[in-house]
Automatic annotation (TrEMBL):
The keyword Hydrolase applies. This is Subtilisin-like protease fibronectin type-III domain-containing protein. CDD domains: PA_subtilisin_like, Peptidases_S8_3. GO terms for biological process: proteolysis. It comes from Brassica cretica (Mustard). Residues 4-57 form the Inhibitor I9 domain. It holds the Pfam family Inhibitor_I9. Keywords: Glycoprotein, Hydrolase, Protease, Serine protease, Signal. The keyword Hydrolase applies. Residues 92-505 form the Peptidase S8/S53 domain. Belongs to the peptidase S8 family. Residues 579-675 form the Subtilisin-like protease fibronectin type-III domain. GO terms for molecular function: serine-type endopeptidase activity.
Amino acid sequence: MLESFLDSKEDAHKSMIYSYQHGFSGFAALLTSSQANKISDHPEVIHVIPNRILKLQTTRTWDLLDLSQIPTSFSSSTTSVKGLLHDTNMGSEAIIGVIDTGIWPESKVFNDQGLGPIPKRWSGKCEPGEQFNATIHCNKKLIGAKYYVNGLLAEMGETFKTTTVREFKSNRDALGTVRGGAPRARIASYKVCWNTMQKDGTGPGGSCSTADMWKAFDDAIHDGVDVLSVSISGDLPEDTEVDKPDFVGAFHAVSKGIPVVAAASNEGPKAQTVANAAPWLLTIAATTLDRSFPTKIALGNKQTLFGESLFTGPEISTGLAYWDSESGNNADVKGKIVLVFDTTSTYPVETKGVAGVIYAQHPDDIVDRCHAFPCIYIDYDLGTDILQYIRTTRSPTARISAATTLTGLPATTKVAEFSARGPNSVSPAILKPDIAAPGVSILAALSPFDPNGHDGFGLDSGTSMATPVVSGIIALLKSLHPDWSPAAFRSALVTTAWRTSPSGEPIFAEGSNKKLADPFDYGGGLVNPQRAVDPGLVYDMGIEDYINYMCSKGYNDSSISRVLGKKTKCPTPKPSILDMNLPSITIPNIEKEVTLTRSVTNVGPIKSVYKAVIESPLGITLTVNPTTLVFSSEDKKVLSFTVKAKTSHKVNTGYFFGSLTWTDGVHDVKIPVSVQTRITIKS
């Protein structure tokens, strides 16, 4: 096809970047605008999509999530673990594909001691490259390693400048974090993101190309991964068309039965910032752990305060000073502990030889910002108290002790401030994020180039840290339920999630004003892997449901055909987006009343009876019909019901939240309900 549009077979060969053949039929090529326009008119071409640059989103976890203690080595017996980890041999037959920045292959997390043979269904490979020897670096743990850069090189003009971080033209990653999964799961790494400058060299730019990303999806489908973990997103609201990578590449992975787990992004706590909003994706928010690192600060006036830090000692006792942007450059702070408010950068302080920094900030639970010196984090109230002491004392002093570790109460789970929030700006009737998992100060494997690292490990934060937690859980669940669809896994996680922390305390959402978390903060709640094993009922979906979604969104037949890779026609009348069989109900614009439909599939005992329990949002009346679901045989596993929502509000409102639960006395299948009243003004 290319040869027919270009001058010669040689030119066509040079133009070719990738051929896509496993998830969908297509190719990536370097073309001029006029050439692309000509090819788009070819009768066998559904659509021509321009390459885009995307951006990367970047211990205690299993205890918090009620999974038993993980053995200290792969050769340890699984008899010491219980529940989901025990029942799945800690995921030894699962294959997790990670589309990200690559890996540091010498990391201890890739030790394959005690692992059995690589699963026979695996058909991928390890590709050699710069400082990456496929024979040496891949093993029974790291079973796949590929890298994709041709799309980025085409975008950057065949060469690109790296940032100050070392980059390797291979799957080796100099700065990224190894984002794992289940303890014994096999890892296949697909490197699509690179530490690059923008074309004009002005600084770190987008480092992931859609052409590269689609090829990674295509290969992962062929290779036989069980689940894909993705920490990449486009921009909002620009990247909202059906040619987004999460639409095309992820859609085809899901259509092949591969769940795709994606980061919600780190743009919180503002509303409508959640990314990766396609309904076939499982979109992950980030929470804290029930862990804190209290650090004692003793002032010279005998006042004792507590902040948080990763300071391991020895104790620091010295003078205390205040640094701000106006007087800081003239302040004598060498050898002192310095108070800094988060309105001022700590960078100048780093060059002044300070003994440590007390950093006053909005609470966000991130304690790993400083690397060259001890950094203790406090809130504004304590910062103001310390500042008052400094300004009223001739020679203020402070003593900082090493941090201690506190797990369990009074520390409790919170939605992280940075975690992106709903409602979904692309499709308001589709609840995003779907679920939350720990993503703050997570112990992770780091490369030697990472300033956070110590002996190959360090703490990292982001929705990209929460994403692999859920990927690992799905890998475990898929070992027990290999016939479940990606939608069934999503439903199992959402309907069984914790709405309070495992300790029973409320889950708050960090932000400018701390508040109780709602579905726009954490979707269904905090993931509860043990309960997801046996959810009772699931809200299932397949390809036809996703096609109906696109039709309900108003995409025309040709746009939908781009995604499917084949000609498609929407049904008449157009489906309602409210009827999409999600494990949630979100009504963004009710004026009087609306009725929607859901169906549930019984994955529990064949003979079961479920009754509806309704918690209506404020000012909204929910009516379910029928109120009892009776599953009586193997042939009657799917039952439908309707939900009528009626508003009593006479003015426009924000969202109010409730829930719908189906219970048989053993299983509580709970979905969040979010409703917003919008009154049409008649002229």
